[in-house]
Write a structure and sequence with these properties.
Structural class: mainly alpha
CATH topology of the largest domain: Growth Hormone, Chain: A
Main location: membrane
Shape: globular
Subcellular location: Membrane
Keywords: Membrane, Transmembrane, Transmembrane helix, Transport
CATH class of the largest domain: Mainly Alpha
InterPro entries: AcetylCoA_trans_1-like, AmpG_permease/AT-1, MFS_dom, MFS_trans_sf
Largest sheet: none
Distance between the termini: 20 Å
Organism: Chitinimonas taiwanensis DSM 18899
Helix content: over 70%
């Protein structure tokens, strides 16, 4: 496609809808991550507790479990996908408003509970948005759609991240800031109502009763696995008290709950979930590719899990300084990195882009190590944030391209939800470990460890060159259907 023609694609209604809905998709994330972390830090909670608040993001990891239901059942209005978008957006506005009414010191558990609710609704909105975007855009619009989707998502993170930090310190305080953003979230419903309508798909092949029975069995299996893991660890004498042992319990509970949930889904019958899973797992090298999804951004996730707390508490920068540099300038650097990655990828190819950009995003974490050992320096903070976000943006571009290439067009919604949930695994579960490591070794050693954490993913990537090259070649031959 000629470059001039490529630019004209940005002006149509479908791509504009992806931009607006990308903003709606990105708005809640910071409110359960960086902005919430800043609120808790200013409120005076200890760093280990703040690290555990990262677990609020667990629904992003498990969204593939209920994504089949969003595929199978459709609200009877607004056409395909848009009904779920409208429902989740309105409920998100209500849940964010509820968070604003809670004192994090007096009721941290209640705040965490509503935070989990926001994350669940946000993850559900993401499932609907990813599927809607994939089905709406035509083949020649997907590049532009991906670009404006990232732009909308990052602009929303700017609003709920940097602008929220500045507004909270200068004018509103955190509760009023959350109330303001709840109003913005409610306004996103208008974007959904103005977006193009998709025709409803053909009647589902599986019975609704079978899908609901399978979903219920899956939840029961997950609960049984959780209880078995908890009591087994207790019988083995593993202490429940202590933050390090709490992480052992968490990993054991999640692993066994997931295994029992999948077993129950297969025994009872949950074809909307097991069909897409079986198709993916049947591919050659599937388990290695799944491991790569988890590991590729792991070092980046470690470094980013406590960056706001590091700059505020470890380096004693103000909320305004952190908002201006880490959020605003960091956003610009990320967008530049994403654009640069997109420009380089056609020349490099998918595998080489993944390797080069992955290495750069790992090495860029050393800039925070330099800042930690050098002491407070505004200029050095700007440099560290700029380099880390630039390289992270390049890595994200290649990584998203990999996720899209891995999806079978027959199972786009569920497989994309599965892969993106695995990608969120690192961001969610490194939080508790990050807090414990910082307490034990200090900030400088922590950032050195984040570089080492990135190496397994790069080593695995080197061994997967042949299947990734074959995957990229096969996707160039496939012409997706119009949305």
């Amino acid at each position: 496609m000629a470059f001039a023609h490529y630019l004209t694609v940005f002006g149509n209604r479908r791509v504009a809808a992806v931009l607006g809905l990308g903003f709606a998709s990105g708005l809640p994330l910071a409110l359960t991550a960086g902005s919430l972390q800043a609120w808790l830090t200013v409120a005076g909670l200890d760093i280990a507790t703040i690290g555990y608040f990262a677990l609020i993001g667990q629904p992003y990891t498990y969204k593939f479990l209920w994504s089949p239901l969003l595929d199978r059942f459709e609200p009877p209005w607004l056409g395909h996908r848009r009904g779920w978008l409208l429902i989740t957006q309105l409920l998100l506005a209500a849940a964010i408003f509820a968070m604003s009414l809670i004192d994090p010191v007096q009721a941290p558990g209640l705040l965490a509970l509503f935070g989990v609710g926001v994350a669940f609704l946000s993850a559900s909105q993401d499932v609907a948005y990813d599927a809607y975007r994939t089905e709406l855009l035509r083949d020649e619009e997907r590049g532009a759609g991906a670009a404006v989707g990232v732009l909308g998502y990052r602009l929303a993170m700017l609003a709920s991240g940097a602008l929220a930090l500045i507004a909270a310190e200068k004018w509103l305080g955190w509760p009023a800031t959350y109330r303001l953003l709840a109003g913005v979230m409610a306004g996103m419903a208008l974007i959904t109502l103005l977006s193009p309508r998709l025709a409803l798909p053909e009647a589902p092949k599986s019975a609704a009763s079978l899908e609901l029975k399978g979903f219920a069995a899956m939840l029961a299996g997950a609960l049984l696995g959780y209880l078995c893991a908890r009591y087994a660890l207790a019988l083995l004498g593993v202490p429940l008290e202590g933050k390090g042992w709490g992480l052992v319990y968490l990993v054991g509970e999640v692993a066994l709950a997931g295994a029992f949930a999948l077993w129950a889904a297969r025994r009872t019958g949950f074809p909307a979930l097991t069909g897409p899973l079986d198709e993916f797992i049947s591919r050659r090298g599937a388990w290695m590719l799944l491991a790569l999804i988890v590991l590729y951004k792991l070092g980046d996730a470690f470094a980013g899990s406590l960056t706001t707390a590091f700059l505020l508490r470890g380096m004693s920068f103000s909320q305004v300084e952190v908002g201006e540099v880490n959020k605003v300038f960091g956003l610009i650097a990320t967008l530049v990195g994403a654009l640069l990655g997109g420009l380089l990828m056609p020349r490099l190819g998918l595998w080489r882009a993944l390797l080069l950009f992955g290495a750069l995003q790992a090495v860029s974490n050393l800039m925070y190590w330099v800042l930690a050992i050098s002491g407070k320096s505004y200029g050095l903070m700007v440099l560290a944030v700029g380099i880390e976000n630039l390289c992270g943006g390049m890595g994200t571009t290649a990584f998203v391209a990999l996720l899209m290439a891995l999806c079978n067009p027959q199972f786009t919604a569920t497989q994309f939800a599965l892969l993106s949930a695995l990608a969120a695994f690192g961001r969610v579960y490194v939080g508790p470990a990050s807090g414990v490591l910082v307490d034990a070794f200090g900030w400088a050693s922590f950032f050195l460890l984040t570089v080492l954490t990135a190496l397994p993913g790069l080593i695995l990537l080197i061994g997967l060159r042949a299947p990734i090259d074959a995957l990229a070649a096969s996707n160039q031959e496939v012409q997706p259907a119009d949305g």
